[in-house]
Amino acid sequence: MRQRMMTLAAVTLLALGSPAATQLLGGGLPAGALPGGIGGAIGSLPGGVVGGGSGMTSGLPAIGGQGGVVNGLEGPLTGFGSTVDSLSPSNLLSLRRERLRTLVRQNRQILDVDDAGNPVRRDVVIGIGLSPAAIEKAKAAGFTIRRSDTIEGLDLVTTTLAPPKGKPARKAIDMLQAGDPQGSYTLDHVYEPARAPLLPMKGEAAAGGGNGGGPRIGLIDGGVGSHPAFANASVQQRGFAGDARPSGHGTAVASLIVGNAGAFRGAAPSASLMVADVYGGSPANGSAEAIVRAMGWLAQGGAKVVNISLVGPPNSLLAAGVRALQRRGVIVVAAVGNDGPAAPPQYPASYPAVVAVTGVDARGKALIEAGKPLHLDFAAPGADMVGAVPGGKWEKLRGTSFAAPFVTARIALRGGVASLGSEAKVGSGRLGRGIVCGECETPPKAVGLK
């Protein structure tokens, strides 16, 4: 038994370390298979990316995978949604470390690491609210000023610096801090979807649609792809790492908020959704700077609640962006992550006043892979359900990424966090103030998935 567990963990680790690990889930179903008939697929997909149970994603240790080939290992592999129950916290932590190492290794031209091994944008240091004297000291120390501007909507003044040639940013930042002890400097950390792969996909981006007479909700994630679930939804998108590009993760999260098609219904289909794509189709994006600029756009656009199903380390620029949103009365909701309780607390969920969300299964039991933030506010369905992905497909979902949007929707509809207490229900495990939106998920069988 012990040997089997070690083998399973090793196979999972190999899969997550492969290029295919940027894909999401296998076994999708065309939207036309919904009761009532929604029509055929929208947009085009790379061959074998989603659906059919045979393609490159079907062997991944992700949600819904049933078999296939991973790094040359052939045969049936249990999907991540089932396998995770057999992995210990130390396994999950090891998988996290390997996943981050692989991300940096595959993107060495643009990524480096901080002292803890977290991915950062290579040769980038960001100063927040620097004085002219501090900037001159940085220049004298050999730093190059790449850009200095104000982030619109947040009134944050940032200065982007490149370190002296040959000196990594993680070492160079100490030079800046020594020369300007009162200054605020940070690396540009890269954040990832909360343990559910980004899944860059081809096809059209979702746009336009319904009137969106309900509350305005912000989403910081990957881009949202065209899907029948958004036919009558109000979706506005903007890219902060190049053009907005469809992604499986962003599309799934968005569908849980404003999606509506046949048997599938999001938690706030009447809301107006503003989508800030901070990846542009690449998992090497998603930097703190892109996220904070996205926050500014959402604040300017009138979003009252912002969903961030992304995770990473603490970062002073990200913290400043969160505080700036909160000062403007915007509520930030974030997923706690899915690397297990042994992983370090993830951000932005662990920042004060951010609504931290974990996930539960259909029995109300806490997901074993859920992270342990510095505080926990609510739980919501995070397993045994489906969401939309580009191309008119539906996929089984699991993870705290997909619990957060339910809480976001409920806060937006109720007009605040305090009112959620009355509907929070007790479940099994560490669930904060309880489970909200407990009946919001759409089970796989409702759309024809087993």
Q: Which structural traits does this protein have?
A:
450 residues; alpha/beta; Alpha-Beta Plaits; Rossmann fold; 3 domains; five-stranded antiparallel beta sheet; 9 helices; 22 strands; 23% helix; globular
Strand order of the largest sheet: 10-12-15-11-16-18-19-20
The name of the CATH architecture of the largest domain is 3-Layer(aba) Sandwich
How does the helix and strand content classify structurally? Answer: alpha/beta
Structure annotation, total helices = 9
Give the total of domains: 3
Helix fraction bin: 10-25%
Main beta sheet: strand number and arrangement? 8 strands, mixed
Q: Whole-number average pLDDT?
A: 82
Radius of gyration: 21 Å
| Total count of strands | 22
The first-level CATH class of the largest domain is given as Alpha Beta
In whole angstroms, the N-to-C terminal distance is 28 Å
CATH homologous superfamily (4th level) name of the largest domain = Peptidase S8/S53 domain
